[in-house]
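Single Protein Entry

Contents — chain, fold
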Amino acid sequence: MYMFDLNECEESVLLAEFKLWKRRLESIKSSNTPRNAMEAIVLCNSQIYPNVFKLLQIFATLPVSTASNKRSFSNLKRIKTYLRNTMSQGQLNGLAMLAINIEVGIDTSEVIDNLSKKKRRLDLIL
């Protein structure tokens, strides 16, 4: 399924690389054995195991459940109301990110600093 992401390597090369990676993991002490994909990425040398490294990256980014997707769509229903139906894609993305990641604190002084550094844009009203 992910062969395109693996630079079109042959299956036999991937299998041999995987066996080497498995042998490497078996040689590690049990206290240092990776417990999740992110810890395995840290241990994996991308020069020696490029395809295993790429598969670990893909594995680390796959969603575990559909709860985050459902949460995103329910937030989108609340954001994009009838009155806000004409907002631009950038505004919608920004509001969605704020609503989905509500637990992340926002520093208002940092936002004001970033906005003050941007060029002023005048929209023509026709």
User: Anything to note?
Assistant: The longest helix spans residues 11-27. The chain has two domains: 3-61, 65-102. The radius of gyration is 23 Å. Residues 6 and 106 are 38 Å apart (CA to CA).
